């Protein structure tokens, strides 16, 4: 057990709670808050996220008195505090005194105060003031009995992910100097002989602001890396203070799911616990699959350790165009889904619904209408359920399949000037993830440098940017007996977004046993048929494949490429490498992935799972827990592989099968 | 009769005319203009709107000589002048010398000269120069025999409704200091504990410029109020000069219909006559209903007194994407519609079609093709018709139904961060107005502080922002025997856009006899059925209603809320309060409103009006006038309630029924 | 033969080659490049386009050494160089030292370095540095044996067509002073009495930056003229140096097709050879018609002399949303199409596919995958074919039909504030061009001041802006026996975008024998039927026509204008003038144009051409060449008018008919 592990989420139950913003309300309401929290089963709150403006209402003048009382109330009630560092949004006085600390868009438009996160991530002014506050805060509450975990900032990069101001430009130059050493190395990395872009000094380099036409892709890629790193440096500056003052306490920050500007794998080494905010879209019938993938990314970033669902909505949010409430039972279902995928904490935004401000129509545990509401009833019921299964805490899933993703590749893939703009990192990930999810095959979602040897199947969906080292590791994985599935437009470009020469995808040609002679993107609405072992149709993408050892599983059935391979399988070393040269429709993708994982011996949790039912397993010291969640709208009958005890049910007998109503949840132990 | 009434439009006929811009043409054309005006029946023109650049071509150097000749020509011809103050658009020299007088967008983009209205409404530079010009102008023409009415500015806020420059920021701070007194009061009003937005001094406050994410709603709302007020201050600065120099003359300014940035009810106390510009959209089959509502707003703002249709197009406009001409007969029909709804003047933009400039393809009374054109023939014929019915002038409609609207609520309603973005103030108003219009039930459209006691029915469509005082007045109105119809998402928020706590809609719960437990917005394209006394379907919005005394008129028939109330009726005191919890399709809305107004005893002008026919009444010293306008495309047969004399017809007999051709107009007296 | 003709493309064969960017690659690759160029049949490359950053990596420090070696290699191999002046894109140091040289949008947003062409066209800084470089370059290579032709800049105005910065504003004022002399003349030309826009001094005039509402159309029009001229001045500044140092060498620059900001007819007098870049869109079934029109514009700009296809793609491009490759055989087909329409050179962008940068996914003669690719095979095969027909070089088409277009009219037509936004210059041109193309009738596409006397038919599609002089010339053309076809909304406005008064279209009323009383634009999706000699339907536009001598060919069959003329024919003098008052669908347009050209005696190259087959003729000293290109997807049988020899075929006999496979090409001599 490492020192990092020691600072894991230290809990013997599934925590339950919310963001708590008592400063929105007069102090008399706080007493009622504590009473209702107990009623609802709250065990943890995260407080102080946006309190900077109140605790330091003038520069250097601190008033923690009111917050002391909040902390004391919570401590008395035995509610743990995941204490925010209060730096998520600076008070108006900061930008009034330092307008150069405001973020600026690529078009030169300043983002002014009036909402939140109005700071340039590279701003020394912001960082200095934030660290100064954190020093005071940590010192004051280091020994407070309510303090459980540190929550640095909040949703880093949600609203200010990239800044193009002069402060950022200067920081970018520093970052480039550190990365490349010489301007010649930069010129090589950025292919600046193209379009007369050669730099003579670092001082000439700029952020990729608005340009007359297509920008330099390597510059844009590096700016994405730099911008993520600038946010991480804000986090690390605060973390340094906290670790110094409270070395024993775990530190986290809440990420947003599938959030392109912030790479969770780059941040993970600096976090003691992974945290995620996830807001299901009730109008999207596949929102639970979207969530499932995000949960798996979060858990995988933490190498499988229990994580926190830091924010979800009790019902509707306020920031989509149309904000449907969570239908009856779905909040419970989706909360248990997080637990089923490894979460040890389920928190909401927020405790009490705001009366004013931009989030007043975001649902909360205590709605505007008070506690005589279905929302308060549903959350309280969930609080009771979670309290009944403390033995789950600390147990972990152990998937046999890994999907490989890379934020660097995402940043490169979705730039312009590509064969097609139809390829979306997230859409492609979900298209590969969904057939495994639906089959009941748990997955990890890991970065390219993760040890793959324990997985029966590794899926690589459209990993456009890939270093030779990664390609070598994938090749070695197959040679050693692994099963690999690779989709089109993978392994094309190196870390500087320069094409690997020698025939696409050059570093994977050997393991895949083929060469792609020419990309053949399809028009919008155009489909191409496939015939062979799999009958299907593809869209968006096709390509001219020459076999070099692989066998054709299906070939194109029409169009310019009729008769040429579309899906291939290559026996290589002791393993197998599959390749898909087009984008299959979901049904065919399910059939193909069923076959691929069958070959690989990657079995589902339960064979023959009814449509719509999710099945996961967590194992730990207290046993092995089977979670069954019915995301469908009809009752499902499920035969259990072993007799199990129903932890949420009322019957003491062992079950061999289960009737799971629509939106139903079962937690079983065997 | 008040002093204000004395300055009402002083006319013994329906005025007819146009914007007159003689400076576009050489003086020899002016003589022809006067001759043709007489031929066309013109009795009034509004002149000088954009003449600033010619009368003051250099700062402080005035040349009114050419304009004297224009005024003299008009006086000689007996044509009255509604004299514009020439300040609608400053000459290029103003912004050349004072670039800080240019308006700036929320994104910092300056709006440069080259079109019109390129001034910041808060600019002291603009106001000073405008007032200086008006002083000269008023002094020069105070005693001119052609001068009839003052026309200040033009279409205030059409192109520069909101400015975000530093001059505006400073003026906003002044306005806030006056409104709130202390920064603490501001913090409370704006709920600034949210997202760490607390202000320490007024100097920190900014306009709601581009922000990283959702802005503070109360700040945005106050900026809409401030911006409207900044424009009003421009108007008032000029008005002060005119009233001082010509205390007897009426003063007006022309508003645009359904123009969100400018609240006609806030301006009305400062206007002697209401004026409106309305441009029907010939491609929109419902454009006359749109117009009808705007006419009723205008008349209601003036408490029913005769108003001016200051601008309409003789045929096509030039500023839509596709500008269809007015089909044969529609210009006449729509002109009479204004009169039918209380106008005592019908003017066009413009007299003679421009040869150059941005409006050269806007139709005019004298087209590019000259007088041998259907346009000149049609307008001349209308001129003759209007001249034939002087007795109508001064008479007024007296509707028995009022719709309540509030620009403050509009400004709050259409902000982001709401349960849905599907709610539009104007669309909702028209959806409630149309079934009354189509049934032949004349309406007023009034602000929330208007005395409602004279109305048989008061309709409150989606009045999101509502003070407790307004709610109390509505409650008292019902208690006293009134009939009230309220639609969803009404009475939610106070004047600072803070939610009224205690269950939606808290201040109306008693009168409506219900509580809304949770909003349930629908997805795009989603519909929910209703069953009960009304069978219908709803879209965009639904909500979970708990009855507290009201009776269910219809319940939801499917979806998550199946079986819960959708439409309710509550007998309260001596009156009745209806409530609609979803957005009904137009047919069901018509059926519902027919029932509601039947209950209330709000009868139509004529029972059983054929589809497409509008019926209105004006009453005055000269009698009672019935207007029938056939907006449909087929002939309509109408049984008259009383024998009538046909004022536009050739027959002297009294009519008991009328055959009204498509696009036909009848003005009847009985 | 003029001095200009002496500098025509001096070739005795069809040149074949590509953009060559050796600086992207290490020198060892250059040797392979030369070897492969010989293999592929390359005879000409254009080099140095983006080399500024390498030859002058610091201001004033030149390193031509590496480029000397490139030139020497090419000379040794006998490959001709169309030498670029290297000024297409300045190195980063230029804007670092002179930020005022960067282009700025109408909204004030700077276009920063990082892509290409980041210079303000009016910038004296850019021009001075460019000319200094060109002086060095021309001096160094004036006598180099590889040097064949000068290629100034590259795709002028592709990415920086219009700049709104202060430098541009000052240059605009200079340009206006030169054009108008006095500010009063400017005021008259710009109709500044409208909206109070009168200027008192030139110093008050600005570019048409973002305005509160519709800008002054004449200002916008003049800014388009000025902006085109600013780019031309950049070209001319370099040309002056080249002509001085190498007076014998032809000079060209490559235009983009249908490129609104740059008027090819205004540039043509300053070019010795016309050059065009054309990138077919493989997903567009009509892309070859689009190309055909652009080729005809290019050839017509050069008064028929041979021109260069300077850039095309070997297969896919990278800059559309979805970039389909060229299907098998289409690259050959489309290359021959350029030759068939008069090109004497067929070049690609580019020789070797880039590894990095924004165009790395643009296809090249040598793809990433190397020479064992269908692309390299197809281009090499084409190189061999072109080498086999040197006798074609220098021959010219001689069409009997001219379409008249005018960039000035384009600039005016597509501004806002018009009767409809549905009229597009390019769409309308192609709608008139396609039925002639499909019938096998070759066309010139000429500016309004071109001598029309040699044409049997002149087509004027929607030439909105037309001087009286042009109208007089069209009238004289018909009077003298010409056949003229004019479409709606033509001849409306003068050179200052002021309407010609006296009934639309005033200057053409006499020749057309009609008056348009009122424009009657149609709604989106609205169609109007036509009945008479042509049965058809129209959309987008209709108008109320009064006959004044013309005869009705078809009248409107429904709608408000039912029974009024829609298509007319007027016998005038010895000729005939047709007029179309609506926009016909393509089938009806084909029928109408067949009748119009039949009347005019404008015969096709081959009567009864199968659908999809293009037929053109080039004639010269070496004979008469018939080109047949099958753009369709089925085999076509074509009866030849005369026995012909098949220059690309293997049979020595004369053919009287030809079987042309799908995508097939035949070059015949008779």
Automatic annotation (TrEMBL), chains A, B, C:
SUPFAM superfamilies listed in its UniProt record: (Trans)glycosidases (SSF51445), Class I glutamine amidotransferase-like (SSF52317)
Provide the E.C. number(s) assigned to this enzyme.
Answer: 3.2.1.23
Entry-linked InterPro entries: Beta_galactosidase_C (IPR013739), Beta_galactosidase_Trimer (IPR013738), Class_I_gatase-like (IPR029062), GH (IPR017853), Glyco_hydro_42 (IPR003476), Glyco_hydro_42_N (IPR013529), Glyco_hydro_b (IPR013780)
Reactions catalysed: Hydrolysis of terminal non-reducing beta-D-galactose residues in beta-D-galactosides
Instruction: Note the superkingdom of the native organism.
Output: Bacteria
RNA-binding found in the keyword field: no
**Any idea which UniProt keywords this protein has?**
Glycosidase, Hydrolase
* Beta-galactosidase trimerisation domain: residues covered: 401-600
Which residue intervals define the domain Glycoside hydrolase family 42 N-terminal in the entry? 19-388
Beta-galactosidase C-terminal domain: from which residue to which, for each copy? Answer: 612-669
Q: Name one Pfam family in it.
A: Glyco_hydro_42M
Could you say which protein family the record assigns here?
Belongs to the glycosyl hydrolase 42 family.
**What name does the UniProt record give this protein?**
Beta-galactosidase
């Amino acid at each position: 057990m490492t020192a990092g592990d020691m600072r894991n989420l230290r809990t013997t139950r599934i925590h339950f709670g919310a963001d708590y913003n008592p400063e929105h309300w007069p102090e008399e309401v706080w007493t009622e808050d504590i009473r209702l929290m107990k009623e609802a089963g709250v065990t943890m709150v995260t407080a102080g996220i946006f309190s900077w403006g109140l605790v330091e209402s003038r520069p250097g003048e601190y008033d923690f008195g009111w917050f002391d009382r909040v902390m004391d109330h919570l401590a008395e009630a035995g509610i743990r505090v995941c204490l925010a560092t209060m730096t998520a949004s600076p008070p108006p006085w900061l930008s009034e005194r330092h307008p150069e600390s405001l973020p600026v868009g690529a078009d030169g438009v300043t983002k002014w105060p009036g909402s939140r996160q109005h700071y340039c991530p590279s701003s020394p002014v912001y960082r200095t003031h934030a660290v100064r506050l954190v020093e005071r805060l940590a010192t004051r509450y280091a020994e407070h009995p309510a303090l459980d975990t540190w929550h640095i900032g909040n949703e880093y990069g949600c609203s200010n992910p990239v800044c193009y101001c002069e402060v950022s430009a200067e920081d970018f130059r520093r970052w480039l100097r550190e990365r490349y050493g010489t301007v010649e190395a930069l010129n090589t990395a950025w292919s600046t002989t193209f379009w007369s872009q050669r730099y003579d000094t670092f001082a000439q380099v700029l952020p990729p602001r608005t340009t007359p036409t297509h920008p330099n892709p390597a510059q844009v890629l590096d700016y994405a890396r730099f911008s993520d790193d600038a946010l991480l440096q804000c986090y690390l500056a605060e973390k340094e203070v906290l670790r110094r003052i409270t070395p024993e306490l775990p530190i986290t920050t809440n990420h947003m799911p599938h959030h392109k500007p912030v790479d969770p794998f780059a941040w993970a080494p600096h976090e003691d616990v992974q945290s995620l905010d996830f807001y299901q879209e009730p109008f999207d019938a596949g929102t639970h699959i979207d969530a499932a993938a995000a949960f798996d990314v979060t858990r995988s970033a933490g190498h499988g350790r229990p994580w926190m669902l830091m924010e979800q909505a009790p019902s509707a949010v306020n920031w989509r165009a149309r904000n449907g409430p969570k239908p009856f039972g779905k909040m419970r279902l989706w909360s248990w889904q997080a637990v089923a995928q490894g979460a040890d904490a389920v928190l909401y935004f927020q405790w009490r619904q705001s009366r004013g401000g931009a989030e007043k129509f975001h649902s909360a545990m205590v709605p505007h209408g008070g506690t005589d509401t279905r929302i308060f009833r549903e959350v309280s019921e969930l609080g009771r359920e979670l309290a009944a299964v403390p033995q789950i805490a600390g147990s972990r899933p152990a998937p046999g399949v890994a999907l490989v993703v890379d934020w660097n590749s995402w940043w490169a893939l979705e730039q312009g000037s590509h064969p097609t703009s139809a390829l979306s990192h997230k859409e492609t990930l979900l298209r590969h993830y969904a057939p495994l999810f639906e089959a009941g095959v748990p997955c990890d979602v890991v970065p390219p440098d993760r040890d793959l040897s324990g997985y029966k199947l590794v899926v690589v969906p459209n990993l456009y940017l890939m270093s030779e080292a990664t390609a070598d590791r994938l090749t070695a994985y197959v040679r050693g007996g692994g099963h690999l599935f690779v989709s089109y437009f993978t392994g094309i470009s190196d870390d500087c977004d320069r094409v690997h020469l020698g025939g696409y995808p050059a570093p994977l040609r050997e393991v895949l046993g083929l060469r792609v002679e020419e990309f053949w993107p399809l028009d919008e609405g155009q489909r191409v048929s496939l015939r062979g072992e799999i009958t299907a149709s593809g869209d968006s993408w096709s390509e001219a494949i020459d076999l070099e050892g692989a066998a054709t599983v299906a070939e194109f059935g029409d169009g310019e490429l009729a008769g040429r391979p579309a899906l291939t399988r290559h026996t290589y070393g002791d393993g197998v490498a599959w390749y898909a040269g087009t984008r299959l429709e979901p049904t065919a993708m399910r059939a193909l992935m069923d076959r691929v994982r069958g070959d690989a011996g990657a079995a589902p949790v339960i064979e023959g799972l009814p449509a719509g039912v999710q099945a996961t397993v967590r194992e730990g010291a207290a046993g092995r827990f089977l979670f069954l969640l019915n995301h469908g709208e009809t009752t499902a009958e499920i035969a259990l592989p072993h007799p199990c005890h129903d932890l949420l049910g009322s019957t003491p007998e062992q079950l061999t099968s289960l009737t799971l109503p629509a939106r139903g949840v079962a937690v079983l132990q065997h």
